[in-house]
Design a protein that fits this description.
With about 230 residues, this protein is mostly helical. It is about 75% helix and about 0% strand.
Length: about 230
């Protein structure tokens, strides 16, 4: 019972959010690396996509390890969203009397957009999975069995690229505040020097990931990658 209370305490929920968030940071960094393979051309990109499907063979069947990784990400996502919802509800309950005049708070744009940005990212994730993974929907009506062609066709359409880039802005802001919060929760911001390092790490992570994910779509849209 005591272990259950520890996990569901505010500190426990924040720790679960931090750890699940770090899992996603590791995932998006790896995913970004794969996306940048588009700059190497059709063959290199498809070879990378095929390599992901063969991971774990012959111990696991084709795409077996890939589905294990996806299942782990689904669990991490469920933990992250559930903890965020519980913490938000507790914060609202703790403030039973609303302010007559809201106090002035110096919060960053990244922190203010965590909840709406997170919701937007969830909706984007549904579309992204339907587009590239589960449904494999080619917005131009072209073939879906060729990963490189699917990517190029998707981002050759202006509205699809615009939607993706908007999601990357939301992702960057989410990573910026989320990385800082995770490091703070894990006790890595105990001194001013560490806080400076944590702020730099959070900003760098956000810019590198969001910027890295945005490169391929932009270069496809302008016709450099085709």
């Amino acid at each position: 019972m005591s272990s259950t209370r520890a996990v569901t305490s505010t500190v426990g929920l924040k720790l679960l959010m931090a750890v699940s968030g770090l899992v996603f940071i590791a995932f998006v960094l790896g995913h970004m690396y794969g996306n940048l393979k588009a700059f190497s051309g059709h063959e290199a990109y498809n070879e990378y996509a095929e390599h992901l499907r063969t991971l774990g063979q012959p111990i696991l069947p084709r795409s077996g390890l890939l589905w294990v990784m996806r299942a782990g990400l689904v669990v991490a996502l469920g933990v992250h969203v559930t903890c965020a919802a519980l913490l938000w509800r507790r914060a609202r309950r703790a403030r039973s009397v609303r302010y007559v005049v809201r106090p002035v708070t110096h919060t960053s744009l990244a922190s203010r957009t965590m909840r709406p940005g997170g919701t937007a990212l969830l909706l984007f994730l549904v579309w992204h999975l339907a587009n590239f993974t589960i449904g494999k929907v080619n917005v131009t009506g072209g073939p879906v069995n060729d990963p490189y062609v699917l990517v190029v066709d998707t981002f050759s359409v202006w509205w699809s690229t615009t939607l993706y880039l908007a999601a990357m802005v939301a992702l960057g802001l989410h990573l910026w505040h989320g990385t800082w919060s995770a490091l703070q929760t894990l006790g890595w911001t105990t001194t001013e020097r560490r806080r400076r390092v944590a702020r730099l790490a959070a900003a760098t992570n956000a810019v590198v990931v969001a910027g890295g994910f945005s490169l391929s779509p932009v270069f496809i849209l302008v016709g450099v990658i085709r």
